[in-house]
Specification:
Blueprint: H1 2-12, H2 18-43, H3 60-82, H4 108-126, H5 133-161
Helix pairs in contact: 3-5, 4-5
């Protein structure tokens, strides 16, 4: 198809001066390069990923990471050391409340392993298909912020309710 377009351009520009013909040759070469690039992209099986214009790490992210970690450590300090949970009076011999205590169905260590290692494992696995450090960084930042805010609100509600 590039040869047909070249023939059409030559027939349209017969009789033009030397300057126009050299300009026409340059335009034809650029058009052929663009067609070749488009053909290579269309026939390749590699994912098309454009490199980011800006670097994936900027100083603005320091504030985001700092706030996420500050929320996480503040939550630990408040719930473990600073605030006494609300205690309800529950009579020990009340038959309506005397169900036998059952152990945890899922152990805490397994819950934490699945929660804190499973999420990042899925994010890192996705980078096999989409190779973008910017996306991985933002996904990890969102994961850390989500875990920090979730633990803060969950523990504060537990402390309030009792």
């Amino acid at each position: 198809s590039s040869t047909n377009s070249s023939i059409e351009l030559v027939t349209m520009t017969e009789g033009l001066g030397q300057d126009h013909e050299s300009l026409l040759d340059e335009v034809k070469e650029e058009a052929d390069e663009i067609v070749d690039k488009a053909y290579k992209i269309a026939t390749s099986h590699e994912p098309i990923i454009e490199p980011p214009v800006n670097p994936w790490w900027t100083r603005g992210y320091l504030l985001d990471w700092g706030l996420a970690l500050a929320i996480f450590f503040t939550e630990i300090l408040i719930t473990q050391f600073a605030v006494e949970p609300y205690h309800r009076y529950i009579p020990a011999l009340d038959p309506n409340l005397s169900y036998p205590q059952v152990g945890d169905t899922v152990p805490v260590w397994m819950l934490m392993t699945i929660n804190l290692a499973g999420g990042p494992a899925v994010l890192f696995l996705m980078q096999y298909f989409v190779r973008s450090l910017h996306d991985l960084h933002n996904a990890m930042l969102g994961f850390v912020e989500g875990v920090a805010l979730n633990s803060l609100f969950t523990d504060m509600l537990k402390l309030y309710v009792g």
